[in-house]
Design goal:
The chain is α/β, with parallel strands linked by helices and 353 residues long. Helices cover 20% and strands 33% of the residues. It is globular and about 60 Å long. The protein starts with a strand and ends with a strand.
């Protein structure tokens, strides 16, 4: 079960002028709760000017190659949390940190001989940095190709570290940097935004389709959609394709209204059941549960992070959006409660599953 704990900041590193990475110390008694998988994220809960705010940040450290737990936070224009963390956080401060979550990974095995193709843009490198280092460390017969888009060299998070890893990888890591406004000379393929046409050419020249291939995509919405469409066109099996959304803004749409009904909703958390009524065209189940006093885990409320996941035990619901659950999870009955509205008179949801 997801839970917040206070963790002490042990190190703050300036990665670029608008990005810091932050390491936190996990006490011995919490080590098991904070074990993580490459590609997962942490949710922080902060009080900024009297307002409680939650934000999720990908873990950039590696669970197999590092002893520390570290996230990266890129400054966002107008971002309350990202600017606070970049400007005011100090070594020794305490942060309220939720236990790790996320499914942006594939299991590692020393016997694997795979090819990993990572498409990252901007701060989308954060989970990729954990993934590629974990693969190189845990799978000696696997290789990684990283396609990494940025404005220019100066704004490229982890650039120095990536170059060093590539140099020492013995050819197992190959990096293709793409810059919109490069400071140094680049060919046409590696200059400009990662359009659909450019993604298709990169895929044809360096990737291809194979049973032992894994494809990961994370970055700005348009860039991800361009790469996703190319990969889908190549009929890549769903279990070999992994995508991580930081924001759902690119897919916002008007909410579809269904015939209204008042449902009797029961949510179970920590074995305790809470009952409330909810209009099918009213608040989400998550918001209604919070109003009823349930300490439900949540972070983005945008169908992206999966923190509010619950299992539907009875009844039916409609999800407005879903960028986090896999088809298999949905088939098993899992829902994003931040996006869910009842469609039947009785709905029962378990947060402990």
């Amino acid at each position: 079960m997801a839970a917040f704990n206070k963790l002490r900041v042990t190190d703050i590193r300036q990665e670029t002028k608008d990005c810091v990475s932050v390491a936190v110390e996990v006490p011995a008694g919490l080590k098991d709760q904070y074990r993580y998988i490459q590609g997962q994220y942490l949710t922080l809960k902060l009080n900024v000017n009297g307002e409680e705010i939650r934000r999720s940040y990908s873990i950039c450290s590696s669970p197999v190659a590092d002893s520390e737990l570290r996230i990266a936070v890129k400054r966002v224009k107008g971002g309350k949390v990202s600017n606070y963390l970049n400007d005011h956080l100090k070594k020794g401060d305490e942060l309220e940190v939720m236990t790790p979550m996320g499914s942006f990974y594939t299991p590692l095995d020393p016997a694997n001989k795979k090819k990993y193709f990572l498409f990252a843009g901007g701060s989308g490198i954060t989970p990729m940095f954990s993934i590629l280092r974990s693969v190189l460390f845990a799978e000696p017969n696997s290789s990684v190709i990283l396609f990494y888009g940025n404005t220019d060299e100066v704004h490229t998070i982890f650039r120095h570290a990536l170059n060093e890893i590539e140099e020492k990888s013995g050819g197992r890591l190959k990096i293709h940097y793409l810059y919109e406004h490069p400071k140094e000379a680049c060919d046409a393929l590696h200059t400009g935004m990662l359009t659909r046409e450019k993604a298709a050419e990169l895929f044809e020249r360096f990737c291809g389709v194979g049973f032992n291939h894994e494809y990961f995509v994370c970055g700005p919405g348009p860039m991800m959609e361009n790469v996703k469409s190319v990969i889908m066109d190549q009929k890549v099996p769903a279990h070999q394709f992994h995508i991580e959304y930081f924001s759902s803004a690119q897919e916002s749409a008007a909410k579809e209204m269904n015939p209204s009904l008042t449902a009797q909703v029961t949510v179970s958390m920590y074995g305790i059941e809470t009952h409330f009524e909810l209009d099918s065209n009213g608040k989400s189940i998550l918001d209604a549960a919070l109003d009823a006093g349930v300490d439900v885990p949540f972070a983005c409320k945008g169908a992206v992070c999966c923190t509010c996941r619950g299992k539907l035990l009875e009844g039916k619901v409609k999800m407005d959006k879903n960028f986090a659950l896999t088809d298999a999870e949905v088939a098993q009955g899992f829902i994003l409660t931040c996006q869910s509205h009842p469609l039947t008179p009785v709905v029962r949801i378990d947060y402990d599953s």
